Amino acid sequence: MDALVNALIAAGLLLILLLFVYLIDRINTIEQETRHVLNMIENADHRSAKPQRSLDPFMGLSGKKLWDAMSGRVPEGLDAQAFQELRASYDIVLSKHIESLFQEGFKDGQRGMSGEPQNPRMVSTSRADIESWLPAAQVNTIYRCGLDASQTPVLSWAPIREALDEAGQFLYGRTQLTPLTSLAAWLMPDPSSSAGS
Question: Where do the structural domains in the chain lie, given as residue ranges?
Answer without folding.
Answer: 2-196
